Amino acid sequence: MFNLTVGFVCSFLVIFMIVRSSSFHGTISLDRDLRGVQKNHAVPVPRVGGTGIACAVLVVVLAEPLWSTVSLKNSLLVLLCAMPVFASGVIEDMTKRVSARVRLLCALASALAACLLLEAVITRVDIPPVDSWLRIVPIAIGFTVLGTAGLTNALNLIDGFNGLASVVAILIFGSIGYVAHSVNDSFVMSMALIMVGSVGGFILWNFPTPSIFLGDGGAYLIGFVMAQLLVLLVAHNPGVSAWYGAAVVIYPTFETLFSIYRRILRGRSAGAPDGLHLHTLVYRRILKHGLDEDNLRQRIWRNSQTSMYLWVLSLVGIIPATIFWDMPLVLAATTLIFMIAYVWLYVVIVRFKTPRWLLALKHSSLDAPRGTEQTRH
């Protein structure tokens, strides 16, 4: 747990310095686009929180040999492999000029590097016909590269509201750490705890009132490391069902797959941005109803409360996965139940048939905190 604590402190302090120095780097770090189709924040905020998390992770990884016997080589290799996709995200955060295609290629490059340097390859999914194909090395590598790049981008896709992606990430890393501890995988457990601490230090600056955002760089880094830990956990521990990896990340994964499906269904590019993600619908059709757009405090508060709805939804997959990590049938059922619940919730909100209990939660606990009201000028 010491690496978790050190990661938290380092992340908190580095991000504190980034926030306090925003007047110097604000011309390149502030997200000033407040009206984009996927934008839901009220004031310009730096979107380079990922650099603070990356610095914290690197510090802990380099210092960990002082108190642990975990392999420094493997930890550094994970970070080295993450560099292409992380760098593409950070550059996009600062310049807004890195295309989605280039970032996807960087994600694929990072995933391929991990396959070659870490031997992090998916060799089973606990479906016999598929597993027989995965015994062919090129097919296994291709499958792993696509899966890793997919999860890397999935974390970025759900990064739209205060604390949403970061808290979901902490819940998933916490689950990975627990399962790794259960099977005595010290490396995966160590990296998972480092990520919990480093992302935790960021959350204090992002929720409920945001002073900084993850940015593409932060989301990509978190998603990539998450994917690598899941691949290594399943590959090195036969007792861990491959369905655990599917169930624990089902929320960001299914959000991505469903978004691609509905875009293609509407004749749009699969990668085109839109404002029809589930988290956006929750904000606009449950929480934004009756919202005073000129009340800055109220807008920020409702933004943060949106994340809480999705945290609860993500637990539908995370909790059973954590408890039944070695039971494929239960995990497969969990994955199916989540997908059904997601589609049902999406459909009822789209059709303006939101259940009364969801609206009741809004009216009972989602009012803005009392205090001096701020208005947007």
UniProtKB/TrEMBL annotation:
Primary localization: membrane
Location of this chain's protein in the cell: Cell membrane
Entry annotated with the keyword Transferase: yes
Gene Ontology annotations for the cellular component aspect, listed alphabetically: plasma membrane
Cofactors demanded by this protein: Mg(2+)
Biological process per Gene Ontology, one example term: cell wall macromolecule biosynthetic process
Positions annotated to bind Mg(2+): N156, D216
TM region positions: 6-24, 45-63, 75-92, 104-122, 134-154, 161-181, 187-207, 219-236, 242-261, 308-325, 331-352
InterPro entries, per database record: Glycosyl_transferase_4
Protein name (Swiss-Prot/TrEMBL): Glycosyltransferase
Species per Swiss-Prot/TrEMBL record: Paraburkholderia franconis
Lineage, opening ranks: Bacteria, Pseudomonadati, Pseudomonadota, Betaproteobacteria, Burkholderiales
